[in-house]
């Protein structure tokens, strides 16, 4: 990685554009504030027509929180914590600490690795044959015949709400699990801003005279739409790429379990860097503003080592991800073993009987 980082540094791509990050977040907050106001004053039918756009902007703000938690938005720690705090617990009601543990520490360390990556273990779904065979009969029926068809219309609208629920549970349970410093600054910040989130989104509008049915209904529907968008953004980065049992090359794992999504500048704006999933996994602290310039360098880095670098269009990636869900129950996980492959290459010169590589 030293060679790759040197190339990126020479082009100034490791610098974090603090001003751009804050400008994007503040601009989107202004736009979404105007959209929320429009929903209050417009007749219901026009508000419903506006919801997909409102959900898209809301999703993009939440995605900027992802940048803050990765410390890729600003040069300073205070700047990154501020952006993460505004976008996650305050605006989205999502715990920063929960996300950091689940996403940064577990998913990024072991992308698509069986029993280590929480993103490929989501009840009642399966992403591999190995999990399918350990499921009960009812769950196996769902995984084999229904999960690909029910995933988008039934499961994705729940994603935003379930992530928030998991975050609240994480915050509530954290003091009981901590051996010391149970109520540290990050816990207090997280808990306080999540409480403010529910008051500002639900309590305050009702106190100001809006009908509670309308307030709760808007919240539930809006975040269901956000869950759909978030799933579409996250799933195309890894679904349909290999699920891994064991591996011996971490950087190869990061590249070959990810997927680069080819988008224009408009689509890329809303993805906040996750269309460059491979680059993001190799260098999670790299700002999404710099990822387009880093991508050709990373692709060359992968191809020089014979590693598979997949890049496809967004709708093709959606299709591949959905098909992968349909056949996940019979798709075995693989082993990435570079040593075995090298030994196989040597043995091939000796004719038949040489073992086949575990991952080609």
Structural description of this entry:
- The protein has 360 residues and is mainly alpha-helical.
- It has one domain.
- Helices cover 66% and strands 4% of the residues.
- It contains 16 helices and 4 strands.
- The strands form 2 sheets. The protein has a two-stranded parallel ribbon with strand order 1-4.
- The radius of gyration is 22 Å and the shape is globular.
- The protein starts with a helix and ends in a 13-residue tail after the last helix.
- 36% of the residues are buried.
What is this structure, in a nutshell?
By secondary structure, the protein is mostly helical.
Question: Key terms for this structure?
Answer:
360 residues, mainly alpha, two-stranded parallel ribbon, 16 helices, 4 strands, disordered C terminus
